[in-house]
Design brief:
About 5% of the residues lie in helices and about 50% in strands. By secondary structure, the protein is mainly beta. The protein contains one helix and eleven strands. A hairpin with a 5-residue loop joins strand 6 and strand 7. The mean pLDDT is about 95. The chain has a five-stranded antiparallel sheet. Strands 3-9-6-7 form a four-stranded antiparallel sheet, with no helix packed on it.
């Protein structure tokens, strides 16, 4: 049975983004890795977005989230599970699945060192124009 896809609602809490680390990848010249903790409050949601030219992995540490990439079906991702996003992927749904419990993700980005050094962390999340 397919899950009912939520429509983004800007009145829902936006996740808190906590930078954890940033390292240059010596074996991949010109690339850096950035780690971030994403804290979704109960009923939290982020608007549709992309991560530019970054490779992204996300691992659910606590709770569960609804996740929809491009035109793939929405999935429920539970604690202990993870997913991957290729550069340019459209992250259409990113919501805490619970109205009463928080959800926490560990997200790792791999991107051009020059980009993160010049543009900072704001380059990691590019919210779709109509939701800014």
């Amino acid at each position: 049975m397919a899950l009912q896809e939520p429509v983004y609602d800007k009145t829902r809490p936006f996740p808190v983004l906590e930078p954890l680390y940033q390292y240059k990848l010596i074996s991949c010249p010109g690339k850096s890795m950035v780690g971030m903790k994403v804290l979704f409050a109960p009923n939290g949601s982020s608007p549709p977005h992309r991560h530019g030219n970054a490779f992204v992995t996300a691992h659910v540490l606590e709770g569960s989230v609804y996740n929809k990439m491009n035109d793939d079906p929405m999935k429920l991702i539970k604690a202990g599970e993870s997913w991957y996003e290729a550069p340019g992927c459209h992250h259409k749904i990113s919501d805490n699945a619970s109205p009463s419990e928080p959800a926490t993700l560990l997200v790792t980005f791999v991107l051009d060192t020059e980009t993160i050094e010049k543009e900072g962390y704001s380059v990691l999340i590019q919210i779709d124009e109509e939701y800014r």
